[in-house]
Amino acid sequence: MPEKLLQIETRPPQGDWKDPKVEFRKGVFCYSALPKNLKYLGLPNAREWQPFNADWKLPPDWKRIILDGMKERLNKYRSFRLFMDTCVRCGACADKCHFYVGSSDPKNMPVMRAELIRSVYRRYFTLTGRIFGSLAGGRELTEDVIKEWFYYFYQCTECRRCSVFCPYGIDTAEITMMGRELLNLIGCNINWVLEPAANCFRTGNHLGIQPHGFKDSIDFAADELSDIVGIPIEVPINRKGAEILFVMPSADYFGTPHYYTLLGYLALFKEIGLDYTLSAYASEGGNFGLFTSHEMMKRLNAKIYDEAKRLGVKWILGGECGHMWRVLHQYMSTMNGPADFLEAPVSPITGTVFENARSTKMVHICEFTADLIHNGKLKLDPSRNDKLKVTYHDSCNTARGMGILEEPRYIIRNVCNNFYEMPENTIREQTFCCGSGSGLGTDENLEMRLRGGFPRANAVKYVKEKHGVNLLACICAIDKATLPGLMDYWVGGVEVAGVHELLGNALVMTGGKERTTDLRGEPLVQEKEEEAVHA
Amino acid sequence: MNVLYSLIAVMVLVLVGVVAGRGDGGRAFIAVAIPYTALAVFLVGFCYRVLRWAWTPVPFRIPTTCGQQKSLPWIKANTIDNPSSGWGVVARMGLEVLAFRSLFRNNQARVDDKNRLVFGENKFLWLGAIAFHWALLIVILRHLRLLVEPIPAFVLMLQHVDGFFQITAPDLYASDVILLVALAYLLFRRLQDPLVRYISFFTDYFALFLLLGVAISGMLMRYVVRADITTVKQFALSLAAFHPVVPATLGATFLVHLLLVSTLAAYFPFSKLVHMGGVFLSPTRNLANNNRRVRHINPWNYPVKTHSYAEWEEEFRDKIKAAGIPLDTSLEADHAGKASAD
Predict the structure, then answer these.
(1) How far does the CA of residue A529 sit from the closest CA of chain B (Å)?
(2) Is the peptide bond before B57 cis (omega within 30 degrees of 0)?
(3) Does the beta-carbon distance from A128 to B76 stay under 8 Å?
(4) Which residues in chain A are contacts of B196 at CB distance < 8 A?
(5) Would you call A524 helix, strand, or coil by DSSP?
(6) Quick check: A274 contacting B, CB < 8 Å?
(7) Above 80 in pLDDT, residue B168?
(8) pTM for the whole thing?
(9) ipTM
(10) B58 has pLDDT over 80
(11) How far is A24 from chain B (nearest CA, A)?
């Protein structure tokens, strides 16, 4: 944590944007990827280097590689070509970016982030740019420009908030993705993205947990849940012939507070007697390929359908995660489908056919649970969550790359008695990023994460002061990993939990014992010292 | 500097128009050669730009969803901001193109002195933009009366409504005033807001000055210098019929107006003004969010290197076995398989 509270202020921009020089100051950038991770994934230019070094050891023909890479992508993605051409620099996006709000760095305005690459596009790929150069907004591609790209394309969380406000739908996530693909061609990437990607490729999950470790974690969770609810619980792994394959982000079985969400899922599955299996091979729903390149995304995603096919399940259920769902919803079927070996998903408990997932055959756990609650299949005791005053943070990817807004709210309203929304400019499609998405959640980048997370934290602070909110619910693994620190720094006294943790707390289980603690093992009723004193 | 250079560039164009209008040759050049060339450049260039986008594949279905998805039947979906059908997309695009829906969402975020993020209304950009675009469309449609004989009824109607206020003689068109005010606001905003000034290039100012030049020269002709409308119409009709006859009485203002319009048309395909076509093609807006219901095809999808289950099992065989997780192939079976293959 930075010792002095960061000053957030709105400053007018200084200098000329055409100057690409950036300063790699401690706390505001991510370290380079280790060569072993590049080698494992077969990525080019594996070497020892750091962004603050003067010499980045780029390949000798780096300029040709970048320009060829741009040309290829301009011909493969309409989004890229169109977004290079249509911006009118109206500036509507400027103050929509959490990194701009938090840093006042003008190049964090989405329009400028795009101009970093657009200026090179103009110079090398348009007639006016080739003739008039800088007068037509063109810029030479130099090594400093590569460094600038690295700095700013790893200072964008691909949250898409700006694209909501853009009159042409220009999506900075798309531009950042292209920028990162290009940087990856010459080996300029960060370890916080590529180590999880390499681990995921090898072991099946980001943390590099091997099959026995996976089983240990799951068994441990099952035992702990058994103790809390008083019912023996077993969790099947790699079981052929199960009806449903359940895939979650690996943080759910290895991180806190994600872990309590896992307990929530397991309690739910036990209670409804779901015929499911986990997989130690497809042990990661998250996909850091999304933050590397489309090709890497496809390589890492392939295991989900492959495993569903091998295990012979009927359909796939997915846990709480943000970017995982962007991939599953918008990319998986196109990349690795068609999933014609699976069946259109039907809830075995309610008989509901998930028409919206008819082709991809993968259902979001919040859709699944909302349907259960709506059909009265769950017995819930929301008073078990009475010590909590809950607000809900829409995760960027599920909000703006999918639109799952009401399902989690419906669940929360049914399992909690105290739910308060944050201001409307900061939720649903206008939700603010945690500031650590798209692989930037590493501690060396903490200052920038805290700056980027400031708008989100500020909205939480507002409902904390107004309604006494003490719990921030969300459905994203990166949120669960990074929001607690963000809350501690800017707000204080607000915990973070997954929606299915709250559900697990409220779920009345058949044959279960009287609950005295929540899934965290803490007493259900908060002992209020002040009240005791007054009494 | 960008402001100054672009202003100078437009002033030079005006000067060229004034000077060239003094001789017959220059007049013919500006009144005939330039408009035809500009029209050709505009048509070919703009079509090329649009087709270039249209020919570029859309490998992934990536709508930006701005509302509730269509999932369970009892949850009300936002059929426009998160369309799940073709009709929803039509409605979304219609609102986007005709009403500037996304820009209408615009607000202003600011950090106050108590370190709080506060939001303010900010509809002026939307207002300026929509006023400018609609006024421009009406002005262009009104110009049809110069190019078509007899004048279409809807043009006469438009003229009538537009001139409703009848405050000057000839009637002051509301669209003229709105166009000028909106352009002035857009220019003022670019100069006054430090953020927008920072992101503004030569080309941004150039487009604005050019449009202002067109609007001002046009209005001068109608309200101040009074071009002879009959002469102008005769010339325009001859131009439209591809039998251009240039009357010697064409005034300098008209030539300047024509030169600026021609420049705008020729510049159009090379500039950000192509957003007029681009807005229809944006994959974040013009696709339905039905990703999981209908499979989207990527025309260049290609096979990639993955880490298969078999490779995974091979690498972790002992650990999988020790953990009691079922294996697909036991080593013995593997050996047997290999033996029989031999």
Answers:
(1) 31
(2) no
(3) no
(4) 89-91, 94
(5) coil
(6) no
(7) no
(8) 0.95
(9) 0.94
(10) yes
(11) 23
